[in-house]
Write a structure and sequence with these properties.
The chain is mostly helical. The chain is built from 20 helices and two strands. It has two domains: 244 residues, Citrate Synthase, domain 1, CATH 1.10.580; 111 residues, Cytochrome p450-Terp, domain 2. Helix content is 59%, strand content 2%. It has a two-stranded antiparallel ribbon with strand order 1-2. It is globular. The protein binds amidocarboxymethyldethia coenzyme *A. The site of amidocarboxymethyldethia coenzyme *A has 21 residues, from loops.
Length: 444
C-alpha cells in the first residue's frame, strides 16, 4: 500500500514535471499540424477541431469517456467504494483526476475529510438562497449561489495582493476544494428551499462520505440512494474539455477569473437544454408520453413511442437524451445507470418505459436521417433512477449534474493555473473574410 500523503502535497509535487513535459511538447512540435480546420468546422461549432488541451479525461466517439485513462467499468472495479462491491466514491475520483493516480482507500478518505473541513458556507449564502423566489429555476439558483460564494475567493484576494503568477495554483487549489466542499450544502439548501418550504433535511454530518452526507441533507435516508449518488456524482464529473460546461470553466478561468466566477458561468451553460438540462427534459418527455397515451386509453408500446417520437420531430423539437456531439455509440454513462437499474429495480415502471424507448428511438432517428448519433446519452437515464427513490422534482436534476461536474472541471482548472494555461482567444472571421479567402485565397 502506498504511503498516505495529502491530496495537496501529492498534486503540488507533480507540477514541475508536468510543466516541463508540456513545455517540451510545445517547443518540439510547435509547427506540427494537428489537422486543418474546414469551413464546416468553423461554421459548425468547431466540431473535432483539436485546439484544446484537457488532461483529466478523454472522450472516444466509439468507446466513450476515460477518466485519466480509466473507463467507467474499470473505475467501478478500482476506485474505493463505501460498501464492499458498491459504486465508486467521487472523492476517489477527485484524487484520480487531480493526480492521475488511483487512490488507496486511505487517500480517498483523506479527501472526504479535507472536503468536510472546508465545508463552512459564508452565512450570507444560506440567507440569499432562502430569499430566492420559489419559481426561480434551481440552476439559476445554483449559479447565483456559487457567485455569492465568490466573496471567499482566496485566488481573487491573492491576485489583488500581487501574488507571483508561478503561485497562482496554490490559491486556485484552495478555491477549487472549498467550492467542491460547499456545493452539496448549497445544492441541498436549494432543494429544500424550492420543494420543502425551506424546512432543512438532515444537518451536515462529517462522519458520512460526500455522497451520503449530500443525500441526507437533501432529505434522503435510503442507503441505496447513497449508492445512486456515488455513481451519479462519479459518472457526470468530466467529459473531456470541449463540452459547454467544461469549456466555459476553461474560457472564463483563462481570464484569471477565480474558480467561483468560472464555475458559476459553467453552470449557466450546463443549464441549457442541449447540455445538462436534458436530464430534466427527458423525464418531462417520458411523462408527457405516458400521459398522452393514458388519456387515449392506450398503453406505452413500441408503436405508441414511435408515434410520439415522430410527433416530437415533426414539431421541430429534439428528442432529449438522444444524440451527442462526439459520441457515436450508446453512452457508457447511460449503460452504467441501466446496469444499476437492472440490478436494483428491474421492475420499475419508468425503467421499463425508458428501456422500450431505447429499443425504438434510435431507429426513428436513423429513419429521420439527420442525427449523427442516434444513441442515448447520459441524460436519457438519470431521471428514472432519481424518481425511483422519490426525487420527482425534474427541474432539480441538473443541479445534481452540476455538483458532479465541479469535480472534473475544477480539477482541470487547478492544472490550468499550475501549467500557466494562457488566455483563450481563438481567431474569428466574418463573411467578407470568408468570401475573400475562399474565392481568391486572400486574407483580408
Ligand atoms: N432529436 C432530434 N434531432 C436531433 C437530435 C435529437 N435527439 N440530435 C441531433 N438532432 C439533429 C440536430 O438538431 C441537427 O439538426 P439540424 O440539422 O436541423 O440543425 C442534426 O440532427 C445534426 O445534429 P448532430 O450533428 O447529430 O448533433 P449536434 O452535435 O449538433 O448536437 C446534441 C448534439 C446533443 C446537442 C443533439 O444530439 C441534441 O440536441 N440532443 C438532444 C438534447 C440532449 O440530449 N442533450 C444532452 C447531451 C449530453 C449532455 O451534454 N449532457
Amino acid at each position: 500500500m502506498r504511503a498516505a500523503s495529502s491530496l495537496k502535497d501529492t498534486v503540488f509535487a507533480q507540477i514541475p514535471a508536468k510543466q516541463k513535459e508540456l513545455k517540451e511538447i510545445g517547443t518540439k512540435y510547435a509547427d506540427k499540424k494537428l489537422g486543418d480546420v474546414t469551413v464546416s468546422q468553423t461554421l459548425g461549432g468547431g466540431r473535432d477541431v483539436k485546439c484544446m488541451f484537457w488532461d483529466t479525461s478523454l472522450l472516444d466517439a466509439q468507446e466513450g469517456i476515460r477518466f485519466r485513462g480509466y473507463s467507467i467499468p474499470e473505475l467501478q472495479k478500482s476506485l474505493p467504494a463505501a460498501q464492499a462491491g458498491g459504486e465508486p466514491m467521487p472523492e476517489g475520483l477527485l484524487w484520480l483526476l487531480m493526480t492521475g493516480e488511483l487512490p488507496t482507500k486511505e487517500q480517498a478518505k483523506s479527501v472526504t475529510d479535507e472536503l468536510h473541513s472546508r465545508s463552512k458556507l459564508p452565512s450570507h449564502v444560506a440567507q440569499a438562497i432562502s430569499s430566492f423566489p420559489k419559481g426561480m429555476h434551481p440552476m439559476t439558483q445554483l449559479s447565483a449561489a456559487v457567485l455569492m460564494m465568490q466573496t471567499d475567493s482566496k485566488f481573487a484576494k491573492a491576485y489583488q495582493s500581487g501574488v507571483n503568477k508561478t503561485k497562482y495554483y496554490e490559491t486556485t487549489y484552495e478555491d477549487c476544494m472549498d467550492l467542491m466542499a460547499r456545493l452539496p450544502q448549497v445544492a441541498a439548501l436549494i432543494y429544500r428551499n424550492t420543494y420543502h418550504g425551506g424546512k432543512p433535511g438532515a444537518q451536515y454530518n462529517s462522519s458520512l462520505d460526500y455522497s451520503a452526507n449530500f443525500a441526507r441533507m437533501m432529505g434522503y435516508n435510503q442507503p441505496q440512494f447513497d449508492e445512486v449518488m456515488r455513481l451519479y456524482l462519479t459518472i457526470h464529473s468530466d467529459h473531456e474539455g470541449g463540452n459547454v460546461s467544461a469549456h466555459t470553466t476553461r474560457l472564463v478561468g483563462s481570464a484569471l477569473s477565480d474558480p467561483y466566477l468560472s464555475f458559476s458561468a459553467a453552470m449557466c451553460g450546463l443549464a441549457g437544454p442541449l447540455h445538462g438540462l436534458a436530464n430534466q427534459e427527458v423525464l418531462g418527455w417520458v411523462l408527457e408520453l405516458n400521459e398522452e397515451f393514458k388519456k387515449q386509453g392506450k398503453s406505452v408500446t413500441h408503436e405508441t413511442i414511435r408515434e410520439f417520437a415522430w410527433k416530437t420531430l415533426k414539431a421541430g423539437q429534439v428528442i432529449p437524451g438522444y444524440g451527442h456531439a462526439v459520441l457515436r455509440k450508446t453512452d457508457p454513462r447511460y449503460m452504467a445507470q441501466r446496469e444499476f437499474c437492472l440490478k436494483h429495480m428491474p421492475n420499475d415502471h419508468l425503467f421499463k418505459i425508458v428501456s422500450t424507448i431505447y429499443e425504438v428511438v434510435p431507429d426513428v432517428l436513423k429513419e429521420q436521417g439527420k442525427t449523427k448519433n442516434p444513441w442515448p446519452n447520459v441524460d436519457a437515464h438519470s431521471g428514472v433512477l432519481l424518481t425511483h427513490y422519490g426525487m420527482t422534482e425534474h427541474n432539480y436534476y441538473t443541479v445534481l449534474f452540476g455538483v458532479s461536474r465541479a469535480i472534473g472541471v475544477l480539477s482541470q482548472l487547478f492544472w490550468d493555473r499550475a501549467l500557466g494555461h494562457p488566455l483563450e482567444r481563438p481567431k474569428s472571421v466574418n463573411v467578407a473574410w470568408l468570401k475573400s479567402y475562399l474565392e481568391s485565397g486572400k486574407e483580408i
